[in-house]
UniProtKB/TrEMBL annotation:
The keyword Metal-binding applies. Residues 84-96 have a biased composition (Polar residues). Sequence repeats lie at residues 143-226, 237-318. Belongs to the TFIIB family. GO terms for cellular component: transcription preinitiation complex. InterPro entries: Cyclin-like_dom, Cyclin-like_sf, TFIIB, TFIIB_arc, TFIIB_CS, TFIIB_cyclin, Znf_TFIIB. SMART domains: CYCLIN. This is Transcription initiation factor IIB.
Length: 325
């Protein structure tokens, strides 16, 4: 008899809790002002009333993916966690890394035994990430590409393209007899020219660990064997960088572009170094717009001799019909 009373009371208590929960749920689903139905606006991260438009909650957490998919196939392809894959890492960024800080999740320092254990784990993790000579080669080369691109101020798309070119060279067995640094530098030089942000051989060799002659020789070999389509460097592509480093005005930059366009129409640019033409155009434009820039300043920025600048800027002014200053 006593057991039946206890069961009855517990059942009544549970039903009462369910009624309270349902009432609280109904309250959350109803507008506190007009009693209308609420809906969640994921685009603005808000909960609003459909009838009166009252914003009940705002700043909600978006639990959806950080990417957009427009069909089922694209959604399956992008279904992932973690950082996106990249060709700039030898394992495409799919492996794990063990942090170098000897601290636990709460920021406390590890004991000496735990530090030794973590160091052994880092060592074995590094060994497993580069299991053969090909992966070690790729890791070293991609590190070189990233270092040189950072020194030259090249954007991420150039680094990605250079990494792809080096991977192709490695897959097609173009490296025997050539240094890793030489092929990596050639890949970066080709990628920069393909992306329309070229760097001169002097600039490339200044940050590379190989000489200028080896870079040029390896570059010709790589683009020939891989069939890369690399257009001749346009002198105008150097002008913005030179003008920015010399702190020249937009008017001077436009004038330099105009000089180069006239030189192309007259055929003066044929057989001339694009870097030399760009530097001479910047110097000539600065003279025409009354900005104080010396040949030595332009020579240091462009990494070419003052003699080249003098010869080329005379030719550019003569092609345009302007008096030689």
């Amino acid at each position: 008899m006593t057991d039946s009373r206890i069961q009855t009371r517990s059942g009544q208590r549970r039903s009462g809790e369910r009624e309270e929960a349902s009432e609280s749920t109904d309250e959350r689903e109803q507008c506190p002002e007009c009693g209308g139905r609420l809906r969640s606006d994921s685009e603005h991260a808000e909960t609003v009333c459909q009838d009166c438009g009252l914003v009940v909650e705002e700043g909600e957490i978006d639990r959806g993916p950080e990417w957009r998919a427009f069909d089922a196939a694209e959604k399956d392809e992008k279904s992932r966690v973690g950082a996106p894959t990249t060709n700039m890492m030898h394992d495409q960024g799919l492996s794990t890394n063990i942090g170098w800080q000897d601290k636990d999740a709460y920021g406390r320092s590890l004991s000496s035994r735990q530090r030794q254990k973590m160091q052994r784990l880092r060592t074995w993790n590094e060994r497993f990430r580069t299991r053969d000579s090909k992966e070690r080669n790729l890791k070293q080369a991609l590190g070189e590409i990233d270092r040189m691109a950072s020194a030259l101020g090249l954007p991420e798309n150039v680094r990605e393209t250079a990494s792809v070119i080096y991977r192709r060279a490695l897959e097609e067995d173009l490296l025997p007899g050539r240094s890793i640094e030489g092929v990596a530098t050639s890949a970066l030089y080709a990628a920069a020219r393909q992306a329309g942000t070229p760097r001169s051989l002097d600039e490339i060799s200044a940050v590379s660990r190989v000489g200028k002659d080896e870079i040029a020789r390896t570059y010709r070999y790589v683009i020939r064997e891989l069939g890369l389509e690399v257009q001749p460097a346009d002198p105008e592509s150097y002008v913005p960088r030179f003008a920015s480093e010399l702190e020249l005005s937009d008017e001077t930059e436009r004038r330099a572009r105009s000089l180069l366009q006239t030189a192309k129409e007259e055929g003066v640019h044929s057989g001339k170094s694009p870097v030399g033409l760009a530097a001479a155009a910047v110097y000539a434009a600065a003279l025409l717009t009354n900005e104080k820039v010396t040949q030595n300043d332009v020579s240091e920025v462009a990494s070419i001799s003052e003699v080249t600048i003098r010869n080329r800027y005379h030719e550019l002014l003569e092609a345009e019909g302007s008096p030689v200053i």
